[in-house]
Amino acid sequence: MKSTCILIGAPIDTGQKREGCLMGPSAYRVAGLARSLEELGHPVIDRGDVALPALAPASCANPAVHHLAETIGWTMSLAEAAETAMAEGIPIFLGGDHSLSLGSVAGAATYAEKAGRPLFVLWLDAHSDYHTPLTTQSGNLHGTPVAYIAGREGFDAFPPFPSPVPAERICLYGIRSVDRAEHAGLLETDMTVCDMRVLDECGIVAPLREFLDKVRAENGLLHVSLDVDFLDPDIAPAVGTTVPGGTTFREAHLVMEHLHESGLVTSLDLVELNPFLDERGRTAKLMVELVGSLMGRKVFDRPTRSFG
User: Fold this and answer.
1) pLDDT for the residue numbered 259
2) CA torsion angle for 149, 151, 157, 160 (degrees, to 10)?
3) Does 218 fall in a domain?
4) Neighbours of 25 (CB within 10 A)
5) Does 73 map to a domain?
6) Confidence category of residue 304, pLDDT binned at 50, 70, 90
7) Is the pTM for the entire model greater than 0.85?
8) Residues with catalytic annotation?
9) Which of 28, 49, 226, 299 is spaced 20 to 30 Å from 272 by Cα?
10) Domain encompassing residue 290
11) Mean pLDDT across the chain, nearest whole number?
12) Which residues are paired to 222 by β-bridges?
């Protein structure tokens, strides 16, 4: 039986300073995400976009941090939406900047804890996102989710993360832009770090397969967070944080195909799509195709694409 896919829009662009990510959920819908999933036989439920709750005052000792109250509000709303959706199918969060993962993974962690199963996180991203509100120099909270998920200190203004994910259950895959403070913090953990040099030397599949074997061995739930900048900007220009040297079209699809074959993915983020920076919707369409591969489309099933 095919999994039910639950689409949850997260129109957030307050986790960084470049406007446009709030249009992401609409772009995915226009690019045919629901139709693509239905063609693969998956029932689709579109829950619409999550809304901000009433905001409470919030403060941080770091004066660079901005939109703290809004980010906390989104975190609370998305955590609730994620926990509810995971009981019904596979939630797919349509972002929105990467601060949405503060909430989506928190909800997945709550669900996993109640189910008595360990949660694993696969972070497909150019960045490690291992800052805290106290260490970030930019003040952009889209650079903090992994630290929050791992239980790092510095998130006193946020709801406590439910059952922090042990570092050995987190895999940073495809990263190629880590600043000094994040690098120092990561060296103190047992997190699996598959940067682009590792992938160049070992191949795109072997490190992924090793991590997936861990998930399977522990009967884990797997949350996948897919950032547009995981992809090379030559094929995915619609992101405000482009970093050269990302995955190619085939490499990205190969990752998705292996994730599908594993049968382990239980929730998914699609983040940092900024349609204002796109070229005739090409990035949105590519992300929709990648979700298709993750949900079962084979390489020979794909129609010829046209951007004309």
Assistant:
1) 98
2) 80
3) yes
4) 27
5) yes
6) low
7) yes
8) 98, 125, 127, 129, 142, 227, 229, 272
9) 299
10) 5-301
11) 95
12) 120, 265
